[in-house]
Amino acid sequence: ALSLSRTSHEATMRVTAAIAAIVIAASGCDAFAPGGSVPSRSVTTALSEKKSPRHDVRSSGAAAEMDPEEAKIQAAFAEHQQNAPKLGWATDIRSLVQFNHGFAVMSTNSKVNPGYPGGSVVGFAPDELGRPLFVFSGMSTHTQDILADPRCSVTIASKEFKGAADGRVNLMGEVALLKNEEKEAAKACYLAKHPGAFWVEFGDFNWFRMDKIVDIRFVGGFARAGSITPEEFSSAEPDPIMAFGNHVAQHMNEDHQDSTIAMIANAIPGLEVDEAIITSVDSLGMYVKVSRTPRASDQPQQFKMRLPFPRKADDRKDLKNIIVEMTQAAAATTAKAE
């Protein structure tokens, strides 16, 4: 019984490692850049960097052979993910900052406790170049910190953030007080994001902006991490579909998850999933967190995959039509198979 249990465990570990390698290879080679182009500063994967940090996966004894059908499914999955259209890194990061709920974690160099970082949850609004605008009370500790040392970082999570599989961006730079002639425009921008921010009129509140961005780090989940230059960030345009994509994702997850599962099966024949939660929607496709149990295994897996659209979505109506078309195509494939 011990021998059979160990063999089953080793088979599961092998399948899990294979899926992880496929996801890494599929997302790392062209993580957010159509056509396989990758920003020069981006982190690809541990597969291409022998000395890069990596997960240490160990198992005892000889690994069991993978189920041949499972191997075919994984190969088809890898090819599909490799070729799936994705937004460029700069567009994805710029969109995350633009359509965030307007709150972030600011880390400052503590004035009271030199050498220690201070953390605060702060409201912000991105300007036309994506630079965060802030309005802070003069009594706030983070205000005193940045007046003494303007160097800080701002960590911004995606609007739909629920855990480590979801996107977040860290902007590192220097924050400065705005000039008087810039304050009215900043106020209009901030109130568009935070319409109830009555405190912007208080006399002891001051306007700041991260004028100098020196580093931009992005993590989008397992094997999706890297950075872009400040110039790439400021010149990128937010993806318009991502402005309301989370509402579409919520509707699909609550009322039509079976359709998402069917669309995945239609896109990658043989890939049967038990759960499919859409985490984000953009003009080129969706990211979906799926759960499945591989063949010849009793251990469930969970990973994120790309489900591309057959064409670029231009607006809300077009997005709805595309999803309906994909749902109908999946239903037709299922009916034909039956």
Describe this structure in words.
With 338 residues, the chain is α+β, with helices and mostly antiparallel strands. It is built from 9 helices and 11 strands. Strands 1, 2, 3, 4, 5, 6, 7 and 8 form an 8-stranded antiparallel beta sheet that branches. A hairpin with a 5-residue loop joins strand 3 (125-126) and strand 4. The longest helix is centred in the first third of the chain and has 28 residues, at 2-29. The chain is elongated and about 70 Å long. It starts with a helix and ends with a helix.
What's a quick, concise take on this entry?
By secondary structure, the protein is of the alpha+beta class.
